[in-house]
Every structure is written in structure tokens, then in C-alpha cells.
């Protein structure tokens, strides 16, 4: 914090407590350390700017030649050097939104289960710990598991889905291994810990008086949860959900390993697909010329998407928060 | 509490009424609600009421959701431990990965590589992050510049990890800034540092804010300069939360793959210096998992086993550090 006021000007020379000016070295050190830490803090802002500038300048060539049509055209053809990112953008949005739809009830439900005194405290803490450790498992290990364990186990169920609901565009293709559906499920696993952790913190911060009041007027446990506790915590929960959405959009490795990386557009969830991040992971190493620029353009779109979602999350938390 | 020797008798005397109370409580006075307008049944729990049925149904659903949420961790852990654990041999740690399709070999170079790249990232991110955190908490808590840095830090924390790789590719790999080398261990380390930085700054900032103001006043009071106060009093007082955050950031960086695949690349050989491509366990898992050869897939499971154990150990260490400070 700020330095205490200097006493040297206020004291008379023969005062017992008179202070000489501090030695030059001392003052220089103080000043120097302050400047150093300021530069280090400034580096973060510079870094963010640097990322934007680097990605933007890399994408300039592609922006010039493809323009906004890049967003709506679905042909990604490295042989003829024509690029459109619609397939990847569609994949990113659909996979992350559907993952969110599945993960929000699971995450919030789990958070309620481990905050509302339904089961004994040790069991609650054990579940909380396990969900947190799930967040620590590297994405690439989840991808490995998805390839060799989850997807083969899931395939009969997906085939059944196709047989029963094949007339519906989302399930219109025969599942053959990697595809959008397993990618969505692995995304659910990856964002579940964020939603659970943030919802749990939000629920724990609801003042005890609100609960006591609710129980005092004779409501049931779930009456209190749905009418009092969830509304009181909703802003933080929505903020957490938005953060999870941002994470899902940018998630790379597990998705790349299981989504099939198809450059052809298909509306079906059972067909192989692509996301912006999986396209980057897959092609960046071998790309050259304008393909690199097109990939940078796609990266820029991904940055804009995640930036919007994250800033919206912060805004929601600040604007919607209930004042008790 | 009364000391037993001195007031032993007194304690005995006090004991009696509580025994009486206990006896009384065995036969509680019953209140008869005999008013014709009062239905006693409404005070008893009636499970068939709609609200109670809804209540127990909701509890069951929440329990089911919690079970589903825990299931993936258990399944992943079980498979990694069984499939990976059975492949652990001494040669795994000392040998190079085999050529595609061939048996045997190990992941020695990838383990060394992961340590090297994570170390580079830590050496960059920890001093910068702790320094920046000190500035935010100790020099400029509310100022405009500090708000800007905090905002930038939050945005940076939300930047997808692959973007960090794209950034370093554009800045370092494509421009061949280091001695004309393109892919290198240093480039990979920088990409990981970009990911670690927001966590380190945030935990330092928050940790320092928890240090009581009296500690700083005390240090100034005995004549310490501000640098000395921060480095010798405030920072040590906040060591626990900062160390926890740093351990978690390192654990996360060690498992990251996306920023490395086109910055550090991969190598079939032992590390050849900091400015050459280097292997890492996470990239090895990715490369070998998508290969159509069973021996390579097996190595990917083995590497996952080692990586997951390392990361879980780091997480438990961080938890232990936090618990240690609560005593």
C-alpha cells in the first residue's frame, strides 16, 4: 500500500525523533523496485496486445483475399488455396453450446447436492475433491481415453440413436468412430468441473438467513432451493457457465483427437466434424503460405468469440449480482 | 471449565440437576391439540404430498447427477492406472521411443523434455507473475492502470491455450528470432509461460491482499523501507496461497499440449539444447494416440500414467500446502 507520510519535513533539528532523509541507496531501491513491478504488471497488458497484433498481422493476407465471406463459406481446400471457415465455426459453436446444455444441469445439480446438507460432510467433500481432480486431468489424456474407451463403448448407443431418429438432420448419418457427438461428450467432462466449482462457491455464499427464512415459513428443501437459494446465486452461476462456454470453445486436444477433423460440412452430430481449435492443432504444423494466414484468420475469430463470451461473463456477474 | 482438584465437590453438586433434567425428558409433557378445527395430521410428514414427492424426486435426480459427474474421473483413472500401470518398466524411463510400428523403447526423452519446457515456463512466468502481483496489491490497488492490468489478466486467462501456441508461432517460430532456429524448447516454454502467467498474477495479488495491514505498519514502524517490508514481511506472510497457486499453474502447464505441438514440436531423440525441437510427454501422447500402431498406443497409455500421477501428486501437494497453513 501507500507509503506512510515522510516525517522529515515536520520535525525540528534537535527533536529526538527527527529523521534524516533516508540514504540515497534506500530511496533508489524503493523507486527502482516499484518501477520494476510496474513494468512486470504492464507486461501482461502488453502481452495481450501482442497476441492480438501477432494474430491479426498474420491473418491480414487472408482477410484481404477472403474478406467476410470466410465466415460463411465452407470450402477449406489447401490444394486450390481457397479457404472458408464455416464448417469449423459451426463445429465450435454447436459443440460448445450442446456441451453446455448437457453440463449445466449436471454441474449445478452436483453443486446443489454437495452444498445443501443432503449427504454427510465427508461424502460431500469427497465428491467435491473428485470433481476438482477431474479438472486436473490433462486434456490429451482425456482424448486418449475418449479414443480407446469412450467412443467404442458409446458407438452402439449412437447407432441406436441413428436408427430411431435418423430422419432428424442432427442424427442423419451412420456413426463410424470419431465424430461430433463423442467430442461433445468429452467437452461435457471437461467443463463440468468449472461449472460445479463456481456454482458451489456461489451457493455457499448465499447468506444463511435466507435459508433460515425459507425454512421458517415452512418450505421444503427443494422449495427453498428453487425459490430462494438458486435465484440468490444465479448471477455467479451464469458467470461460471459463460466461463465454461469460453473454455469449451477454445478446448483443443481432446476434441481434436475424437472429432474426426473432417473438412466437409455435415449438419449431423454423428458425422466427423471440426472446430476452429482442432483445425489449428491439426494443420498448423504442416501449413505454409496463405494457409497459415487463413489459419491465423480462424484463430482471430476464435479469439473474438472467447473474448466476447468472457467479457460478457464478467459483465453479467457485476450487473446481475443480487444485493442482499 | 473448573479445575477438578479444587472444586471437585462443587462439580458433583452441579451434576445433579442435569440428571433430573434427563429423567424429566424421558416423560415429556404432552400437549393435547384437541380443537375440532385443528387437523393434527398436517403436522406429520406425509410422503405422498405433491411437495414431498417433488422433494424426494429432486434429491434423487441431484444425487444421480453427482454420481454421473464423479464417474468420468473414476473411469479415466481406472483405465490410465490399469492400462498404463501394467506397462511401467525400468526401460520406459531410460530409452527412446521406437520407430513407428516397432515394439519396445521408452519415453525417457519426453520426460526430460517435459521437465525442461515446464522449467523454462516457470522461470519466466513466476518472477513476472509475482512481480506483477506485487504491483497490483502493494503499489496500486485501485488505480486506473491497475484496473486495466487486472482486466487484461482476466482476458488472458480466458485465451484458449491453442492461441498461445499460434502467438508464439507467429512471434518466434516463423520469424526464427533465436539464432535462426524455428521450433525450439524455448519457444514451447514461452507458450506455456503465457498460460501460466494469469494464474500466478491472480494468486499473488489475492494472496497479498489477505495479509493484514498491521503487518505492513509494524514493519514501517521499526524503520523498514518499502522494498524490505514487501520482500521480507508481506511476501513471506502470503507464501502459502502464492505457493499453492504456483504449484497448480505448473501442474497445469506440464499437461498442456496445444501450445507445444507447433512451438516445441517433437523429437525422437534426447534433447539437443534449448534452441532445438524437444519432445514432451503430452505431445508424445497426442502423436502416439492417433498412430495406427498398437506399440505406440501402449506407450501413449504409459506416458499418460506417468503424467497423470505427476499432476495428481502436484494437486495433492498444493492441497497439503493450504492445509498446513490453516493449523
Mean pLDDT of chain A: 86
Largest sheet of chain B: none
| Overall geometry of chain B | flat
The string of secondary-structure elements of chain A, in order, is HHEEHHHHHHHHH
Write up what this structure looks like.
The complex is a heterodimer of chains A (324) and B (327). Chain A is mainly α. Chain A folds into two domains: 9-66; 68-323, MetI-like fold (Orthogonal Bundle), CATH 1.10.3720.10. Chain A has eleven helices and two strands. Chain A is flat, with a radius of gyration of 27 Å. Chain B is mainly alpha-helical and 327 residues long. Chain B has a domain at 110-326: MetI-like (MetI-like fold, Orthogonal Bundle). Helix content of chain B is 70%, strand content 0%. Chain B contains twelve helices and no strands. The radius of gyration of chain B is 30 Å and the shape is flat. The chains are: A mainly alpha (324), B mainly alpha (327).
Give me a quick take on this structure.
The complex is a heterodimer of chains A (324) and B (327). By secondary structure, chain A is an all-alpha fold.
Structural key phrases:
heterodimer, A: 324 residues, mainly alpha, MetI-like fold, two-stranded antiparallel ribbon, 11 helices, 2 strands, B: 327 residues, disordered N terminus
Amino acid at each position: 500500500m501507500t507509503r506512510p507520510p515522510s516525517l522529515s519535513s515536520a520535525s525540528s533539528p534537535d527533536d529526538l525523533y527527527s529523521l534524516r532523509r533516508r540514504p540515497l541507496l534506500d530511496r533508489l531501491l524503493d523507486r527502482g523496485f516499484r518501477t520494476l513491478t510496474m513494468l512486470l504488471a504492464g507486461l501482461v497488458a502488453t502481452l495481450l496486445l501482442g497476441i492480438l497484433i501477432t494474430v491479426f498481422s498474420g491473418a491480414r493476407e487472408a482477410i484481404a483475399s477472403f474478406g467476410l465471406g470466410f465466415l460463411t463459406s465452407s470450402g477449406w481446400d489447401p490444394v486450390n488455396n481457397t479457404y472458408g471457415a464455416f464448417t469449423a465455426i459451426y463445429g465450435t459453436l454447436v459443440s460448445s453450446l450442446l456441451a453446455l446444455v448437457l453440463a449445466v444441469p449436471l454441474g449445478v445439480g452436483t453443486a446443489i447436492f454437495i452444498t445443501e446438507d443432503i449427504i454427510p460432510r465427508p461424502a460431500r467433500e469427497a465428491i467435491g475433491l473428485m470433481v476438482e481432480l477431474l479438472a486436473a486431468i490433462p486434456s490429451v489424456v482425456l482424448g486418449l481415453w475418449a479414443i480407446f474407451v469412450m467412443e467404442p463403448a458409446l458407438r452402439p448407443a449412437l447407432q441406436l440413436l441413428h436408427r430411431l431418429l435418423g430422419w432428424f438432420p442432427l442424427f442423419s448419418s451412420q456413426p463410424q468412430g470419431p465424430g461430433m457427438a463423442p467430442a461433445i461428450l468429452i467437452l461435457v467432462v471437461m467443463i463440468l468441473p468449472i461449472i460445479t466449482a463456481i456454482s458451489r462457491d456461489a451457493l455457499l455464499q448465499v447468506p444463511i438467513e435466507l435459508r433460515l427464512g425459507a425454512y421458517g415459513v415452512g418450505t421444503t428443501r427443494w422449495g427453498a432451493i428453487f425459490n430462494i437459494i438458486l435465484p440468490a446465486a444465479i448471477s455467479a452461476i451464469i458467470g461460471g457457465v459463460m466461463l465454461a462456454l469460453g473454455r469449451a470453445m477454445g478446448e483443443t486436444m481432446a476434441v481434436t483427437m475424437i472429432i474426426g477433423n473432417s473438412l466437409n460440412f455435415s449438419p449431423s452430430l454423428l458425422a466427423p466434424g471440426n472446430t476452429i481449435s482442432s483445425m489449428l492443432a491439426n494443420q498448423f504444423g504442416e501449413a505454409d503460405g496463405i494457409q497459415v494466414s487463413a489459419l491465423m484468420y480462424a484463430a482471430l475469430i476464435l479469439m473474438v468469440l472467447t473474448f466476447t463470451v468472457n467479457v460478457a461473463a464478467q459483465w453479467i456477474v457485476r450487473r446481475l449480482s443480487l444485493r442482499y | 471449565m473448573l479445575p477438578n482438584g479444587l472444586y471437585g465437590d462443587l462439580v458433583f453438586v452441579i451434576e445433579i440437576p442435569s440428571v433430573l433434567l434427563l429423567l424429566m425428558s424421558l416423560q415429556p409433557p404432552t400437549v393435547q391439540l384437541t380443537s375440532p378445527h385443528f387437523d393434527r395430521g398436517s403436522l406429520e410428514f406425509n410422503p405422498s404430498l405433491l411437495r414431498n414427492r417433488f422433494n424426494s424426486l429432486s434429491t434423487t435426480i441431484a444425487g444421480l447427477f453427482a454420481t454421473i459427474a464423479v464417474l468420468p474421473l473414476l473411469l479415466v483413472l481406472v483405465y490410465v492406472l490399469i492400462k498404463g500401470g501394467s506397462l511401467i518398466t525400468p526401460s520406459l524411463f531410460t530409452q527412446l521411443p521406437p520407430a513407428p510400428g516397432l515394439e519396445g523403447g521408452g519415453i525417457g526423452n519426453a520426460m526430460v523434455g517435459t521437465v525442461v519446457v515446464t522449467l523454462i515456463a516457470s522461470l519466466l512466468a513466476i518472477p513476472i507473475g509475482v512481480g506483477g502481483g506485487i504491483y497490483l496489491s502493494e503499489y496500486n490497488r485501485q488505480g486506473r492502470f491497475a484496473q486495466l492490468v487486472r482486466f487484461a489478466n482476466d482476458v488472458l486467462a480466458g485465451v484458449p491455450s491453442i492461441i498461445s501456441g499460434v502467438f508464439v508461432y507467429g512471434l518466434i517460430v516463423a520469424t526464427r528470432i533465436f539464432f535462426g532456429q524455428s521450433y525450439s524448447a524455448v519457444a514451447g516454454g514461452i507458450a506455456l509461460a503465457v498460460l501460466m502467467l494469469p494464474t500466478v498474477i491472480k494468486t499473488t495479488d489475492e494472496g497479498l491482499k489477505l495479509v493484514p495491514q498491521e503487518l505492513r505498519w509494524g514493519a514501517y514502524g521499526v524503520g523498514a523501507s518499502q522494498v524490505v517490508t514487501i520482500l521480507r514481511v508481506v511476501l513471506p506472510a502470503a507464501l502459502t496461497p502464492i505457493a499453492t497457486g504456483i504449484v497448480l499453474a505448473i501442474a497445469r502447464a506440464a499437461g498442456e499440449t496445444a501450445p507445444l505441438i507447433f512451438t516445441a514440436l517433437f523429437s525422437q531423440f534426447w534433447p539437443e539444447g534449448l534452441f532445438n525441437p524437444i519432445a514432451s510427454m503430452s505431445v508424445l501422447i497426442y502423436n502416439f494416440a492417433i498412430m495406427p500402431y498398437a506399440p505406440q498406443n501402449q506407450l501413449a497409455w504409459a506416458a499418460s500414467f506417468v503424467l497423470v500421477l505427476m499432476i495428481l501428486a502436484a494437486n495433492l501437494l498444493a492441497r497439503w500446502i493450504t492445509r498446513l497453513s490453516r493449523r
